Every structure is written in structure tokens, then in C-alpha cells.
Amino acid sequence: MSGEAVVFWIFATLTVASAAVVVLSRTLIYSAFSLLVTFFGVAGLYVLLGADFLAATQLLIYVGGILVLLLFGVMLTHKIYDLDLRSETTQLLSGLIVAAGLFVVLTAVALKAEWPSVERAPAPTTAGIGRLFLSDYLLPFEAASVLLLVALMGAAMIVRRRRDA
Amino acid sequence: MIGLQHYLVVSAALFALGVLGLLTRRNAVHVLMSIELILNAANVNLVAFSRYAGGGLGGQVFAVFVIVVAAAEVAVGLAIVLTLYRLRRTPNLDDADILKG
Amino acid sequence: MDELTRSLAWFRPEIALVAGLLLVVIVDSIGGAWRGPVMRLLTVGALGAALAFAFELQAAGAKGMLFSGMTVIDPLSAAFKLVLVAAGLLTVLAFSFRNSRELHGLGQGELFALVLALVLSCLLLAASNDIVMLYLALEMVSITSYVMVAYLKGDRMSNEASLKYVLFGAASTGTMLYGFSLLYGLAGTTSMPGIQEYLAGGIPDANRFAVYAVTLLLLAGFGFKIAAVPFHFWCPDVYQGAPTPVTALLSVLPKAAGLAIALRFFYGTLSVPAANAWDLSGSIDWTTLLMLVSVLTMTLGNVAALTQTNMKRLLAYSSIAHAGYLLMGIVALSENGARGLLIYLAAYLVMNLGAFLVVTLVHLHDGSFDLRDYPGLYRRAPLLTLAMAFFLLSLVGIPPFVGFLGKFYVFAAVIEQGMGIYATIGALNAAVAAYYYFKILKVMTIDPGNEDKPALKLAFADQAWLAAFALANLVPLLFWDRIESWARGALVLYAGR
């Protein structure tokens, strides 16, 4: 097996296994930390795919931002002294059947379809992505700023304690 | 040789696991985590296609926007969960049952 | 740079809304007792300017792509933008912090900013020409809606409703995103015209399965936005839990924007034109799928509404049913189908906003959303009851009300395509729906009760708006030919390169 294959299998197994822990674990804190491993695994896959900018963004935002936020959420929604952060499961069997069905269908799609195969040689992507943001994808780029404004205002407004308007 | 299809199967597994979490978990934060798995699955697809299937960098740009959206969604979602907890002392969805029918 | 200036010239409605949004945020943070009226003025001004620009856009009849193919300008999108901005403007004018008991005492600035952001996102969504823009705009609409539903911070119902909305919405759009990622892989591009070229060029048999799977995944996102079965579960709870003005807004704006982009996507990207631009046939057989969704949606919506006593939930199920009828416009896959969708949406706007205004006013004076508290309103508030009668009859689809116009066009489009059974099911559903609409009317007029309650003293502004909406439901039929020509002028869908 080539070096690339070994690294791929390591990251792939890491990602999928930790995702399984996220979903199946009874304790919320274990799920949160497994999610951390999943995000790292995905970042590793991005590096393998030559997406250097995206791997860095994944780590910065997903691990550094979103995961920290989720951890806060986990911690703040339980009594501080109660470390038994359990989470209940319902209807595991029917969920498993649906999920397994989806996996089979999507794998069939992945394996059966003829994907156009034009392999790009890996190259640094940051400059290219930056250029695209300011040319072709300018409108979504600017619209995203409105989205972030709304989310910021909205989240702050929702959590703020009621004050006399 | 590692090819496109390897990555697609990994993302299919992530997607399926995310859906599993969505359907079986009662804690709202847990459901949010499952949704993040689904979004990451789609992102892996996008980046893999960008590399192997001639999409240029468009797939990666799309993936960056998905990350942005995910961040906004989690922020708003957690704000709401926190308020739920403040009002009801539980983050469990089943206990959010005033609205019925 | 030239592309940018050229595009900005056609982007005036959106620019007006962004300017309004920023000004409202700035005014709100400056503070001062005069904020409230100023922000309201800014919001109304921005929406009014956007409306004027949208009129101008449609009159100009331009066709083309803007911002490097991210968004499109054509008469059809201009017409939808007109409907969307009008919906936002009418809601802001008719509903206020004064006549909604739920909003009393809450901070105003955020809601105005959110309304502007919602209308802006809906405009971006309705004219998207690239799946990146589509996804981003869809999420913008969704996230703004989540925040608006959670507006009543201290209220458990509002909180629960927004939580269900967020989780359901994020899951649905996440699924749709997975579908888009596969579509991107198949077509090699994120631009919708590019995807259409790929699909029109003949899908190899090995890929047909993939394209079907993709369509199903995409349906999760579209279905969620327009509250179609089986992605409608959030709808009753959210409509009930949100403050009623927000419900009124949500019943029209995201639904209309979702339908506009669904029309554009299914007609433009998933279809192939033959002899002329409107002689379309699907690249895959999605019409059967959508027909099934439409039938399930109208049936479930109508059946569930029969037993509801909470007015907001009842109107939620009624909205779901109307989404089923609106889908008929898309299933028809013809010029008349698009026309039917446009006219029905415009009609739906005035019917639904009117009904929600009545519900809000009754809640303001009586404090109840329960239909069982509605008897005697005929005596206590005759103008309100009369207006409600107009709205209900319009919702049933009886001439001479504008609801009839909407139903007429979509049914005609469907029958023209030879889908007789489909049209019959639609007609049966309309008959079933008539039962609960008439039931409301009966409760308000004939049922005994509440004799001891005093008459409702409605503010002049409220009376004026009730009258305006009531007339808007009745008068358009006199201008049928004008409406027809407006819609005809709008029927240019630019799906090309």
C-alpha cells in the first residue's frame, strides 16, 4: 500500500469511527470530544485532497469556533455539579434501518455512477479561492456578510435577558 | 490507489451516521452535532469532486460557504437551546411538548 | 469591475434593502427615545424604494445574468421580486407593535432589521442562478426566520417552536446540500445553466440512478421551505409559537421565494426546452414525483385543518394545503403553469395577510386564538367579520374573489396538460377545505355566545387596513385583463448562458 493509501485509511477510519461515537455515545461530553476527532479527521482528508486553505479553515472555524460553542452549550445546559451528562436514545432500531438504507443507496450512487474524471494536480489553493471570492463568487461573499450580521444580532438578541424596551 | 469513490463512501457513512443521530437523539445539542456531521459529509463530497471531477475550485469555495452557514446555524441554534434550558431546565426535545397536534 | 457596475445597476431593490438594514442597525445602536418611529420609517422607506425599483425592473424587461452568473435578471424574477417586496411592505404597514399584543414591550429595532434581511434574502433566493447562491440564500432566509420565530424570548411556545424550526430546517437544508454536492460532482460546475447543459446533453444510464437520488435529496430542502409533505412537520408548531405578525410574514415570504426558486430550478435546470422556450420536458421524470408531493400536501393540510381549534394552527394547515395547490403550477411544466403560480401567489398574499390580521386583532382585544372564543364577533365587530368573510371566501376560491383567480389559473394549466385526475383531486380538496373555512365564518356569525362582551373598538388604522385587504380580495377581478397582461409580460424565464 502506498503512503497515501495508508494515511487515507487512517484518517477515514478515524473520522467514521469518531462520528459513530458522536451519534451512539450515551454521554454528551464524550460525543462532543469525539466530534473534535471527527473534525480533525475531515481536515486530514482535506489535506490529502490538496485543499490546504480549506483544511486550515476547517480547523480554525469548526474546531476553534463551532466545537467550542457546542461544548459551551453542553456545559451550560446541565447542572454544573452533575457530571452525569446523559443523553437518551429513542427508537434506535428504526433509526438504524433508515440510516443503513441511506448508506447503501448513497454508496450505490458513488460506485455506480460515471464521474467525470479530470484529476487536478495538487497546488496551493488559497490564492485561487481568494480570487474567486472577489470575482465569480462575489455576490455570495457579500451576502454571507449579511447572513453573519443577522446571525450575530439574532443570537445576541435571543440570549439577552429581557430588559424594558 | 485511492480514488474519488473512496472519499464518496466515507462521506456517505458520515451522512448516514448524521441521519441516525438526527432520528434517535433527544437532546437538542446532540441533534445539532448530528447536523454538523451531515454538513461535513457534504463538504467532503464537494472537496473530493473539486479535486477529482474537474470542478475547479468551485467546490472548495462552496465548502467555505457551507462552513460559514454552519457557524451561523450553530450560533442561533445554541442560543435557542440555552433559552429553552433557562425556561424549562431541560435540553431534551421530548420535554418540549407544549405544542402538540 | 465593469461586470460589477453593470450588475449593480440592476440590483437596486436589493441595494435599497441593504441600505435600510444598515441604517436601522445604526439607529438602533445609537439609542434615544425617538428610535422606534425612525426605524419604522426607515423600514417602510427601504421597502417602498425596493418596490419602486422592482416595478422599474419589470417594466424594463431586461434579461441576463448578473454578478458573473450568480443571479439572474428576467421579467419572471422581477415579477416574483415585486410580490415578495409587496408582501414585506404590507406586513410592516398593517402589523405593528401597537396592534399585536404579543409584541408589546419588546425591542423594535431587531425585528425591523430582521424583516429587511428576510425580504433581501428572499429576493436573492428567487433569482439565484448558481447552486452556491441558492444554498446561501436559502440558509439566509431560514436563519432569519429562526431568529424571528424566537423573538418572544420569555415565551415557552415561541422558544419550542423556534427550536423545532432550527433543527428541522438545518437537517432538511443539510440533506439538500448533500444532493447539491453530488450534482456538482456530476456536472462539474456550480452554475445552474451549466448543470442544465449537462443534464440536457443526455444522462448516461449509469448516472440516472444518481440523478434520481439527487432529486429526492433536493426535495428535502425545497419541501421544507414551502412546507410540503413530508417536510411540513415544523409548520403548525412554528406558526403557533411565533408572534402572529411574524407568522403572517412567514406564511407568505419564504413560501413564495421557495416556490419561485423551485420553479426556476425545475423549469430551468431540470428541464429541456424543445421548440420554444416554454415547450419544456423534464430531463428526468420529476413531474410525477412533484405531483405525488402536491397531492399528499393538499390532502394532509386540508384533513388536518378540519379538527383544529387554534386559529394559528388552522391557518398553518391551510397554508400547507395551499402549497399543494401552488405546486400544481410547477407540475404543469408549461407557460400557463408559471403564470398560474405567479397569480396564485399574488392572490395568496392578500388572502393570507388579511386572515392573519383578523386573528391578530381578535387576540389584541380578546386575548384568544381559540376558535371557540370567536362566536358573536358578528355583533361585536361587524367590519372585522365582513373582512374575514372576504378572506375566507377568497381562500376557498369562490368567484368573485381573488382566490378564485389563482385557483382558476393553476387548475387550467394542469387540465391543459391532460392531468385530469390530478385536477379532480385538487377540486375535491378545495371542497373539503371549504368546510373548515365556512365553519369559521359560521362560528363568527351564527353561533351564539359572548353576548355579554362589549363591542370591539378597532383603531382607525386597523379598520383602514382591514378594508384595504378586503377590497384587495374583491376588486382585482374587475381588472382581470390587466392582471392577465401583467402576468403575460412576466413570462420570460432566462435560463440560458
How would you explain this protein's 3D organization?
Chain A has helices spanning 3-24, 28-48, 52-76, 92-112, 126-134, 138-159. Chain A is mainly alpha-helical and 165 residues long. Chain A has one domain (3-87, 122-159): Four Helix Bundle (Hemerythrin (Met), subunit A) (Up-down Bundle), CATH 1.20.120. In chain A, α2 (28-48) packs antiparallel against α3. The relative contact order of chain A is 0.08. The longest helix of chain B has 31 residues, at 58-88. Chain B has three helices and no strands. Chain B has 101 residues and is an all-alpha fold. Chain B has one domain (4-88): Orthogonal Bundle (Helix Hairpins). Chain C has a domain at 285-490. Helices cover 74% and strands 2% of the residues of chain C. A two-stranded antiparallel sheet of chain C has the order 1-2. In chain C, strands 3-4 form a two-stranded antiparallel ribbon. In chain C, a hairpin with a 6-residue loop joins β3 and β4. Chains in contact: A-B, A-C, B-C.
Tell me the major beta sheet of chain B: none
Rounded to the nearest angstrom, the radius of gyration of chain A is: 20 Å
Tell me the count of domains of chain B: 1
Q: Which overall shape of chain A is indicated by the principal axes computed on the Cα atoms?
A: globular
pLDDT < 50 runs, ≥5 residues of chain B = none
Concise account of the structure shown:
The complex is a heterotrimer of chains A (165), B (101) and C (497). Chain A is mostly helical. Chain A is 73% helix and 0% strand.
